[in-house]
Specification:
Layout: E1 4-10, E2 17-22, H1 25-32, E3 36-41, E4 51-56, H2 59-62, E5 67-72, E6 78-83, E7 86-90, E8 92-94, E9 100-102, H3 107-117, H4 134-166
Antiparallel strand pairs: 1-2, 1-7, 3-4, 4-7, 5-6, 8-9
Length: 169
């Protein structure tokens, strides 16, 4: 019995890559560069099956300058940004014995994933050119906006710390 599953692996600065491997904890940790966090991705429409995003639990801290893509809600609003390596697998399904397993991705699923999350290799400093698809341009813009918000929040926290430490009450 083949326990291998197909996933789409995203890494900063590189093209997305389809891999087929056994999804053991050890293999998943190698793909994301540390402890894993599992995020169920809701379908964009009623007929679509959901997918599962597996990312680094500490990605925002560990890979702060390497945003991959934004997570959008069904209205196209950015709700989060994924940093560092991650992969997208089939949705989690429960077996008869109660254990959870990732569903197998079909070739249509792979096309939907790349259509929704892009081909990869879209970095914050990359010059937008005509070769980028509309999806990649939207993802790049959303990543840049979210990165600016995160930097502003981080700088605001620093200025609060320095103000608190500077004077007495």
């Amino acid at each position: 019995m083949d326990n291998k599953k197909t996933v789409v692996w995203y890494r900063p600065g590189q093209q997305a890559k389809a891999l087929r491997l056994e999804l053991t904890l050890e293999n998943m940790q190698k793909l994301v560069g540390g402890k894993i966090q599992i995020v169920p991705l809701e379908p964009k429409s009623e007929w679509e099956l959901g997918f599962t995003l597996v990312c680094n639990e500490d990605g925002k801290n560990k890979f702060f300058d390497k945003p991959l893509f934004p997570l959008l809600d069904n209205n196209g609003n950015t709700v989060d940004v994924i940093f560092g390596p991650c992969f997208i697998a089939g949705r989690l399904v429960r077996d008869e014995d109660g254990s959870e397993e990732f569903a197998e991705l079909t070739s249509d699923d792979l096309k939907k994933i790349v259509g929704r999350f892009g081909r990869g290799k879209v970095e914050k400093n990359e010059t937008v050119n005509q070769e980028l698809s509309d999806c990649d341009r939207r993802q790049l813009a959303a990543c840049q906006r979210m990165l600016a918000k995160l930097r502003a929040r981080k700088n605001g926290m620093r200025s609060l710390r320095s103000t608190a430490g500077a004077g007495g009450d």
